[in-house]
Predict the 3D structure of the following.
Amino acid sequence: MSGGPSVAICPGSFDPLTNGHVDLVLRSAALFDRVVVTVMVNTGKRTLFTIDERVGLARTVFGSQASIEVDAFDGLLVDYARRRGARAIVRGLRSGIDLEYERPMVLMNRRMAPGVDTVFLLPGPEVAHISSTLVREIVQLGGDAGPFVPAVVLDRWRAKLEGR
Ligand code: PNS
């Protein structure tokens, strides 16, 4: 095992970045020397925010943290992780349903890249219920996403809805 700094990738769609993601990334930053928040393409999902918007919002949120970097990648997660010299992929687990969603990806990724493993972290209780999908639905139906996402995400979302 290399003696260099420990690098972890926090991959996801981040459509949009929620307070749950922020909790996960900060927990990861407490465990690893360097954390790369990587906005990925999930081929199974249509997105609301563009990749550039999602990267820009994450950079605004994490900009003040020297050990956290934000990047985007359109390809295989394990290729990206290897390229970055990452030892770990970090994912959040809210429930057993999340675990069943993650399980095949973890095993496929491990098979493709035995040197990179996936680490799961549980969210803090105040954000454990948040999902981007539900937050998007709440906003689509006229609800307030304020308790669930960082303020910059809410501002950008309002601007988008107003066509700005
Ligand atoms: O936030 P999400 O949508 O749950 O994140 C899923 C994501 C983006 C991590 C996953 O779809 C992914 O790793 N996509 C990159 C393409 C890839 O590596 N696919 C093979 C997975 S075994």
The two ends are 49 Å apart (CA to CA). The first helix runs from residue 19 to 29. The beta strands are 7-12, 34-40, 68-73, 88-92, 117-121.
